[in-house]
Amino acid sequence: MANSEDEIQALRAAVAELAARIYRLEQKAGSELPTQPQAAPPPSKPIPPSPVPGALVPPVVSALPPRPAAVVATRRHSTEELESTIGKLWLNRIGIFAILIGVSYFIKYAFDSGWIGPSGKIALGLIAGIGLVLWSERFRSKGYAAFSYSLKAVGIGTLYLSLWGAYQVYHLLPSAAAFVAMIVVTGSTIALALSQDAEILAAFAMIGGFGTPVLLSSGENHEVALFAYVALLDAAILAMVTVKPWRRLLVGSFIGTVTLYVGWYSEYYTRDQRGLTVLFTLVFGAIFVVIPLLTPLTNSRWVRGFSITLTLLPLLNAVVVFLALFSMYENDKTTLTFYSLALAATYLGLSSQFKRRVAGDKEIVRTVNLLHIAIAIAFITIAIPLKLDSHWITIGWLIESAVLLFVAVRTKTDFLRYFAGATLALGIVRLVAFDNFHVDTLIFNARFATYVVAIAILGGIVAVAERQAAGREITVVRLAGVCLNVLSLLALTLEAADYFNRQLMIWYQTRRPDAYMQSHDIELARNFSYSAIWLVYGAVLMMFGFWKPSAFVRWQALVLIALTIGKVFLFDVSELQQGYRILSFIALGAVLMGISYVYHRDWLKLSRRSSENSEQEMSA
Question: Taking the domains of the chain in order of start, what are their residue ranges?
């Protein structure tokens, strides 16, 4: 037995020594391995021998710590990346900047010393620009594309500045010649961008193209030449983007177009130029409005993920075009209404075409489609107050909300539901807070008709939603029901108030000695009418709640009746005459007793439901 234990101890010591020796060998081998060793094929898994009874089982050796070679390689790789970035990028930029500074100092010294005249300066600049562009091709052919584009940027910028100096500073070239030369530079840069598949060169061309009118500005009004050039430049960029996925260029093109347009408009626009300016405004708007239709057809990457060009740009384009038209037709609302409706029709048609022709990310396609619909709705909403006056604006918004809600329900589009709700809220707020009505008749007047339209729409929402609403929509439906009742009470109360106010005006105009006493009686009758209207409406609402049955409606009736009780006891007792006071209390008591009788008879089985709920709680 003792010999067996000695053998086990000796075996364990041998295994531990062997494990330590293997670990030292692996450490030494790991420090000598290259940074990226070739992966060895995985060793075949040995088949463990079946245990023999009575044989000694070696102890399980714990896993060895990982070799530090991978960590060392990772650190070495990150260090090499930083070193490469500094050498290739930072030193490149600093070197170009230093060369430009040195060359500029040399040229300045040559200019100050009179070595080079005006023509020589311009020729030197043009030669230097062309030379840098050609020299950059040598680096691109060797695989240094970033360095090549940096040299091209310097060369192209030198060409633009040289042509600007030839026209503005030394007057060596006429305006037309300098303009054509800059167009040649822009076109050549675009050709380079397309041939070398370089978006950065296209951006250089775009910046130079929009900078050309600024560099060659003569301080005179050349609307046709300026806007025709800008329209051609926008069309060229759009055509370039249809074959290349460089959609960011369209954002820059839009910014450049708006900048030049606003700069010209603030300086040179007059009423006599309105027709021509409107034409160019619509041309610019058309160029940017067709972007969603043209670009996705040739490149599926346009409709993958969120796109500012397809979402934000249509909205900005619509806003800018309408503001431009509004500034020119501020005093001609009829024409401005026509343009609003035309823009609405354009965006509705664009929405239909985009949804039908474009295939890609379903989410972005749906977003763009709904955005176009929203812009069209906004233009329709704007057109209503431009063409209509007074309460007709409110009626137009209310009817628009009903149409939008109908379309949203039929097409199951939540986006349109939000717009319909916003338009409905806008119409109700305008009706209650802003519309001023001159009422001469009871009930049959413009104000009551407008309230009836709003009440009918809210009633339709409640009636339809009772069968379809679910979840969070129930809260919105209940809010619509409360608004319906509030508007109904307000409409009836306003009718009563106006009726008695007209009677007061008649008595005041007669100037009879007893006019004050009779006017006091009219005021008492008016105050009593308020209590009567609220009480009757509360009773009818309670009956409707019993008939449906709807606890939510009954609670609204109870709240209204509670307010009526407060008015009767706090106001009618002290203000009304004996007859009105008697009628108020008798009517209130009769209504309350009738409602109490219904609850006592338990027609709604409320007590049974309460007992069932109690039993369920007890069993739970």
Answer: 84-218, 241-385, 388-511, 518-608
